[in-house]
Amino acid sequence: MPYRMVCGLILVVLGCRELEVPTRPALLDEGQLAKAQMQAEVELRHSFGGRLRYHTELRTVAHADSLNILLATGSTPATAIEKLLLRYPTLFGCESSVQLELVDTVTERDGSRHVTLRQVQREVTVWGGSLTGHIDSEGRLRRIHAHTVPLMSWPAESSLPRYGAEEARQEALRLLAKELPQVSAAATTPKLYYLPAQRRLSLVYRIELSGQDGELPIRQAWFLSAQDLSVRAREELVAATDVPLSVSGRGVGVLGDLHELSIAQRSDSYSLEDLRRGSQRTTLAKPLERLPGRTVTSSRSDGWDSPHAVSVHAHLATLWDYFATTHQRFGWDGSGRGLVAVTHGEVRVPPLPVALFDGQRLLFGAGSPPQLLPSGAALDVVAHEYGHALTRSTSELAAEGESGAIDEGLANLWACLVERAMTPAQANWTVGESVYRPVQGTAALADLEDPTRTNQARLRSQQVTAQEGYSAGAAVSLLERSLRRYNAGFVGHAGFLIAQQIGPEKTAAVLYRAVTTYLHRYADADDLADAMVASAQDLYGAKAESVTAVRSAWQAVGVTGFLR
Questions:
Q1: I need a labelling partner for 59 at 20 to 30 A (CA). Which of 196, 232, 343, 383 fits?
Q2: Residues 384, 475: one domain?
Q3: Of 146, 51, 134, 43, which is closest to residue 93 (Cα–Cα)?
Q4: Rg value, the chain, Cα
Q5: Which residues contact 62 (CB under 8 A, 6 or more apart)?
Q6: Which of left, alpha, beta for 87 (phi over 0: left; psi -120 to 50: alpha)?
Q7: 374 and 448: one domain?
Q8: Closest alpha carbon to 484 in 397, 424, 365, 371
């Protein structure tokens, strides 16, 4: 029964005598919050040890490490962690158990567990508000990674929306149509969230919009105010799938190399579908054809009209095998599903992006020979986009800002680590050197050993404007992607430095654990450094040389805010 109704009944029973209804204490201002956090941190350290790092914007703990907290055996791990968090509300942002909701508990082979909780305010989920506690095999809480809002400090709008979900959906479609009139879009059912921004919680509807702008996919999440339907935020996302006799074939790729192919046979027709690897398939999209185009087919198992599709299909198999064998991950999202890879066989004017991952598919442009060959010809370029898919399916790094730069840098690092593991004879620390052959400048899309060699040249080559033939929306999207790559150099370089000290195999193990276990959607550079240090500790021990190597590499690229 609602609280106000209960109070009303009590008044009736007591003959309408006045009662003092308790009210919530006023919100803490920044000074009060900081003071309370200082006191709480002293108590936490005194009781359980540990080291803390705070999120610069949220002002709550982003990472707590080296804890030694024996959790009570009479309750579930989630309940035990919840009790600890509520003991220190200003550190972790929650004052009551109703503000925490269990998302998942993962148990590893050695008995260690990872418990993930999310924040809830007034029965509405706080978007992006999550916390994961890491418990060792002895039942001790050792580490906490968090991205939580200080609910006792940030005011929240009413949880009762003034507008309905359908009104919000129609408004989102109207706004997209106004911005991109050429796009026929679809919208998902809106869901209510509290969106943290500018030190307050806004009640919003989150609506996913999808469509196609020319030959580029559109998939975005719009956050519309539930009070006035204004746009409070937008996030880039994007979206497809297909399936029969698995046989072997052969084909010649873009670079003239002969590839062994895993393909499908239907009657007398063969197609680039790999039934052995999650039914991943390779398609060919012709000009103005709706994505993902059509699965590449042939009347012969060893004769294919699209060298670009042959290269991509072979590289997809290599990537599946690498992650399955090295990291025991089957498919990009770990569920045994294969990716759809879209290839473009004809050069476009203006040229399409080199390559991209749209949320569910990989897309590879035909380039602009002779300076830029079809991008899917290079294993490291395909591995780069596969790295984006891996990150999206695990830590869901946001595509904007510092998180977007980290996502780009991690994809470059995966590109080089996969190449070193699967084709060591051609391995190096550059990406795309086999397909990018400019008249001037460095022949690589990324250089992890020396990022400055490729940043300026790449930015110049990717300056896209609406006047060159792209729609305004596509131009902005491509320019933002270029800027993210410019800022991603330090991430790849840190990985390069780590690999010089501990080798590519250990570096890949640390990176995989960091991405799949510790990173969160809005991770920054400090979060990534913390995640890789924690992963090295988990894999090789707290005092291992690998841990020292990870710390020193991040310090060398100027990331010094992480735990020391």
A1: 232
A2: yes
A3: 146
A4: 26
A5: 53, 54, 55, 145, 146, 147, 526, 527, 530
A6: alpha
A7: yes
A8: 397
Q: How far apart are the first and last CA of the chain?
A: 50
Indicate whether 269 belongs to any domain: no
Position with higher pLDDT, 479 vs 340: 340
Distances (CA, A) of 143 to 23, 67, 80, 114, 389: 35, 6, 14, 10, 27
Residue 241 above 50 pLDDT? Answer: no
Give phi and psi for 26, each to the nearest 5.
Answer: -60, 155
pLDDT of residue 350: 62
Same domain, 481 and 344: yes
Residues 405 and 390 in one domain: yes
Dist. CA 338–CA 515, nearest whole Å: 20
Assigned token pair, 79 = 């309940």
In this structure, of 6-20, 104-118, 146-160, the range with the lowest mean pLDDT score is 6-20
What torsion do the CA atoms of 419, 420, 426, 430 make, to the nearest 10 degrees? 70
142 and 188 in a single domain? The answer is no
Q: Does 483 share its domain with 500?
A: no
- Looking up tokens 């029965």, which residue turns up? 123
**Where do we find the tokens 């719009």?**
222
Residue 482 pLDDT > 60: no
For residue 477, the domain's CATH number is: 3.10.170
Q: How far apart are CA 461 and CA 474, in angstroms?
A: 16
Count the Cβ atoms, other than its own, within 10 Å of residue 234: 16
Domain range enclosing 99: 30-147
Residue 342 lies in a domain: yes
The tally of domains found in the chain comes to: 4
- What is the residue whose two structure tokens read 């305004």? 472
**Which residues have C-beta within 8 Å of that of residue 396, sequence separation ≥ 6?**
520, 521
The three state secondary structure string of 134-154 is EECCCCEEEEEEEECCCCCCC
Query: What HEC string does 33-101 produce?
Result: HHHHHHHHHHHHHHHHEEEEEECCCCCCEEEEEEECEECCCCCCHHHHHHHHHHHCHHHHCCCCHHHEE
Are residues 425 and 506 part of one domain? no
**Residue 250 included in any domain:** no
> Of 456, 489, 522, which residue sits at a domain end?
489
Backbone φ, ψ for residue 513 (5° rounding) = -65, -40
Q: Is residue 115 domain-shared with residue 217, that is, in the same domain?
A: no
Look up residue 488 and give its amino acid.
Answer: A
Assess if residue 127 is contained within a domain. yes
Question: What is the pLDDT averaged over residues 108-122?
Answer: 93
Tell me, rounded to whole angstroms, the distance of Cα 249 from its chain centroid: 35
Query: Which of 489, 514, 547 is the C-terminal boundary of a domain?
Result: 489
At residue 452, the pLDDT reads: 78
Place of tokens 């320019």: 479
**pLDDT tens digits for range 383-404:** 999 999 999 999 999 877 889 8
Q: Which tokens hold the place of 412?
A: 């470059």
